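re: ur question from yesterday

yeah so i grabbed the chain u mentioned. its 217 aa long if i counted rite. heres the sequnce exactly as i have it in my notes:
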Amino acid sequence: MDLRDLYHEEPFTTYYLAADNRLTPGARQFLTDRRIPCEIAREDEQGKKTDTVPVDEETESVPSWQLLKLWHTLEHAESLILLTAEWFSRHGEHLAAEDFTALARTLQRTRMACEKGELPPALTFWNCTESELHEKADNTVLPLGLEKLPEDEALRAKLLMLNHLRTYLQMLEPLVMETQSWHRDTGPERYEGLIHILHSLNDVLCIMMGNYMRGSV
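ran it thru and got these structure tokens back, copy pasting raw so excuse formatting
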């Protein structure tokens, strides 16, 4: 039954929505226009104005593709980090390559923990905690415009590779937040933990970029 028909048949002051369903835009607007609050139904409220509305008419299930999109994008980020490690190794930067490989493993562990619904482990890198990495991050190198690039071609290439990786990881945060908005009831801590890890990975890249620009590598 359509939500409007349900309301006209028996007016209600609160609409109880099943936890695994979502309102369509039309249904949400209908409730908003009438100032009817929508609440997630508890077990003892499952029969109140929820089961009578077909999912395909007024509610939509949380999309599984949203999670798949997040996991696959994170896996793609891992591949980019490993590709960067290979590039630096081929250019004689073996220590940096080892650091990138470690970052890829960190992101992989984080992704696998989140896929299992677990809280990702806190990041420790270069014997530094997440907060210590953030304090060391050299944000003065950002944004990396053309005017900041050195003349040395090899150094320019390294900075551009690092910045490409940094900006890609930066784009992941909105995707994580979007996924979290769809899955508010399925362990929000894991998404917040994932965002913290992404911030720390960006801090590491900022530190590396600053070191290269200062010639301290």
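noticed a couple things. The chain has two domains: 3-61, 64-214. also Residues 46-62 have pLDDT under 50 and may be disordered.
anyway ttyl
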